[in-house]
Design brief:
Helix 7 crosses helix 8, helix 8 packs across helix 9 and helix 9 runs antiparallel to helix 10. By secondary structure, the protein is mainly alpha-helical. The chain starts with 6 loop residues before the first helix and ends in an 8-residue tail after the last helix. It has 10 helices and no strands. The protein is elongated, with a radius of gyration of 20 Å.
Length: about 210
């Protein structure tokens, strides 16, 4: 890892890599210090305990996610935003890394949820923010009645593809799921348009 003047940044970046690769519970402060090329004694100046660096990692993941969603919001049409979310999350993701280590967000949320507590809650908010953002987009399309369910289908579809890709070490699971989700979004939009045009209330999901 290239040296940087800010030791705290180096420690957080090292922790992000190690936690993704070997889990939060198996990562020690000594591991993080070694990877960041920071003396172990100096770590305690920035982080009193491992939970503190865990919070910093989650904060960094949240900032990255927020920036991604902010960029997607610049796309004019909500359907295109949702498609871009899939492409950004799956197609443009480093699927070889996912196959080897899983999803950095989903894996951390799953691990911490077994312990509960404040750290688990903060990690869970990452997925909550994805769901909330997706629901806003489905509302904008005109699928208000099913927006929560559609958001759940979308996010769980992405996260499920990561799980299968990691389990079977095969990026094709995520690639195939991306195609399925993109086709599904087109069907949702067509069905919604036909419903609005006819003026008849009917089920949007297909």
């Amino acid at each position: 890892m290239p040296r940087k003047t800010d030791k705290r940044i180096r420690l957080i970046e090292a922790a992000m890599v190690l936690i993704h690769q070997q889990s939060f519970n198996l990562t020690t402060l000594a591991d993080i210090a070694h990877k960041a090329d920071v003396p172990l004694g100096n770590v305690y100046y920035y982080f009193k305990k491992k939970e503190d660096i865990g919070e910093a990692v989650i904060e960094k993941l949240a900032a990255t996610l927020s920036e991604m969603l902010k960029q997607l919001d610049e796309i004019s049409q909500p359907l295109d935003r949702l498609k871009a979310f899939i492409r950004t999350s799956i197609v443009n993701e480093n699927l070889e890394q996912v196959a080897r280590y899983g999803c950095s967000i989903g894996g951390l949320c799953q691990e911490l949820s077994k312990q509960s507590g404040q750290l688990a809650d903060r990690a869970a908010k990452l997925l909550h923010d994805m769901l909330q953002w997706a629901q806003v987009q489905f509302n904008a399309i005109g699928c208000a009645a099913e927006s929560a369910n559609f958001a759940l289908s979308l996010v769980s579809g992405v996260q499920g593809s990561y799980l299968l890709t990691h389990t079977f070490k095969d990026p094709q699971f995520s690639i195939r799921q991306a195609d399925i989700l993109l086709s599904w979004l087109d069907r949702v939009k067509v069905k919604q348009y036909q419903t609005a045009k006819s003026g008849v209330e009917e089920e949007v999901f297909v």
